[in-house]
Amino acid sequence: MQDLEKMTPEAAYWYAANGLGRWPEGEVVIMTSPEWVHRYAHNIIKGRWPEAEVIILTSQEWAYWYACDVIKGRWPEAEAVIISDSEWACWYALDVIKDRWPEAEATIMTSSQCAYLYARDIIGGRWSEAEATIMTSPEMASRYACEVIKGRWPEAEAVIMTDSYFFNEYGKNVLKK
């Protein structure tokens, strides 16, 4: 048996994963890391691990992954955690809810990339409330014009022009020049 006091969560996970299966003695070590709790629940337990979910709820990223991989759907208890980060709120809406998540939209629209993805993949069209944020990035503004508006976006052209690569892409794909 391994010396649990010196073991990392990763080492405890791999000790269990290498043929041991569920390892109750090592779970106390694994429960010190949201990442390894997720991996253990997903790959070893192959289902929810209720005693460790409080650990998962300390991380927006691992709460998202747990909802995707273990719960395979919405996890209401985690939404208050996930909603506080624009990236993970966006991915949760895209991959878990697969629809608009009105409660998270204020957070999602604080990131130009997340706002663009949400408009393109969830709203399926212009998201006027987020356009000021999208417009802060030449790349996202160019992609938004090309893939969401599917045409010129005069209000964003000054921003797009600040990046030669994305201005060239905008010119080819939107202005057709």
Task: Report on this structure.
This protein has 177 residues and is mainly α. Helices cover 64% and strands 0% of the residues. It contains 13 helices and no strands. The relative contact order is 0.07.
Largest sheet: none
> Looking at the chains present, what oligomeric state does this protein adopt?
single chain
Cα separation of the termini: 69 Å
Estimate nothing, just give the exact number of structural domains.
2
C-alpha Rg (nearest Å): 21 Å
What is the helix/strand order? HHHHHHHHHHHHH
Unreliable stretches (pLDDT < 50, length at least 5) are: none
How many DSSP helices? 13
Strand content is under 5%
* Overall shape: elongated
Strand count: 0
- The secondary structure category is mainly alpha
Percent range for helical residues? 55-70%
Averaged pLDDT? 95
